[in-house]
């Protein structure tokens, strides 16, 4: 079932949401609430159908219940993320345990919210999501550095660079703000959906980006550190000599580098999650 949007959420482009919910009454309430906000909503009631509809329609967001039958929810999330969906939000019930939550995080959920769903909680999450690029959109350039958000590919000096999804999203954000200083909090809010972090997540990802772009770790020329503030991307003229290509075995993502996504149960109003493209 598809509901026409009244107005867009956060952008001029209509946001498409797949609601994977086994309870028809809950699905109907979500459809009504999301469509009023401007989303195009499609529903399904089991895991197999959720995977099928994701592959056929490529929604921007999948809102998936942990009670969804047919496919283990963590496996479903993992398969959905492989379709480059911008965000996967999991709804956990009061009886779900921390083991399931950890499995969902490892599978790549963007956020975890408590069920029953509350629109004041979902609205700020959706407001932070950008719809998937339409044909002709999604190409970002900064000097010899390019990111294609449709194919999730990055190049520097015409040479492909193998990046994880999160690394590419981070690079895309920096390119959008070329030559501007962006604070660590701004980056964390835009890419991870949280303005503060107790870990060195951002530092680690910046270092990995520098290595893969062939930047000098001791004296970075592309992604520069602005002490006390954050980072500034300077448009490169050509590919540095140390660029790590997509075919290099040294850049193959290992299990230890799996992206951990945002976890939030009972987020306060005003929280948002990162743009996924």
TrEMBL record:
Highest taxon of source: Bacteria
Keywords, alphabetical: DNA-binding, Phosphoprotein, Transcription, Transcription regulation, Two-component regulatory system
GO molecular function per UniProt: phosphorelay response regulator activity; transcription cis-regulatory region binding
Sequence ranges assigned to domain Response regulatory in this UniProt record: 16-130
InterPro entries registered for this protein in UniProt: CheY-like_superfamily, OmpR/PhoB-type_DNA-bd, Sig_transdc_resp-reg_C-effctor, Sig_transdc_resp-reg_receiver, WalR-like, WH-like_DNA-bd_sf
Stated name of the protein: DNA-binding response regulator, OmpR family, contains REC and winged-helix (WHTH) domain
GO BP terms in the entry: regulation of DNA-templated transcription
Family matches, as CDD domains: REC (cd00156), trans_reg_C (cd00383)
Keyword Phosphoprotein: yes
Region (Disordered): 237-277
Keyword Transport in record: no
Domain OmpR/PhoB-type: 137-235
Coiled coil: none
DNA-binding region boundaries: 137-235
One GO cellular component term: cytosol
Gene3D superfamilies for this protein: 3.40.50.2300, Winged helix-like DNA-binding domain superfamily/Winged helix DNA-binding domain (1.10.10.10)
Compositional bias annotation for Low complexity: 237-265
């Amino acid at each position: 079932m598809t509901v026409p949007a009244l107005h867009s959420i956060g952008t001029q482009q209509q946001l498409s949401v797949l609601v994977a919910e086994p309870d028809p009454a809950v699905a109907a309430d979500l459809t009504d609430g999301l469509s009023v906000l401007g989303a195009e909503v499609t529903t399904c009631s089991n895991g197999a159908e959720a995977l099928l509809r994701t592959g056929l329609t490529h929604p921007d967001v999948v809102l998936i219940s942990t009670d969804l039958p047919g496919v283990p929810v963590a496996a479903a999330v993992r398969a959905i993320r492989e379709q480059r969906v911008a965000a996967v939000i999991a709804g956990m019930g009061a009886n779900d345990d921390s083991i399931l939550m950890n499995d969902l995080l490892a599978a790549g959920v963007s956020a975890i919210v408590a069920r029953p769903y509350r629109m004041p909680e979902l609205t700020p999450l959706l407001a932070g999501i950008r719809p998937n690029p339409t044909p002709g959109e999604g190409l970002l350039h900064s000097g010899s550095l390019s990111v294609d958000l449709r194919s999730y590919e990055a190049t520097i000096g015409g040479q492909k660079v193998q990046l994880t999804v999160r690394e590419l999203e981070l690079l895309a954000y920096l390119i959008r703000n070329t030559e501007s200083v962006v604070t660590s909090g701004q980056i964390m809010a835009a890419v991870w959906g949280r303005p503060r972090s107790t870990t060195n997540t951002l530092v680690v990802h910046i270092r990995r980006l520098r290595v893969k772009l062939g930047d000098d770790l001791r004296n970075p020329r592309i992604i520069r550190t602005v002490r006390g503030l954050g980072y500034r991307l300077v448009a490169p003229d050509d590919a540095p000599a140390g660029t790590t290509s997509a075919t290099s075995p040294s850049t193959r993502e290992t299990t230890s580098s799996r992206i951990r996504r945002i976890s939030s149960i009972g987020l306060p109003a005003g929280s948002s999650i990162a743009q996924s493209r």
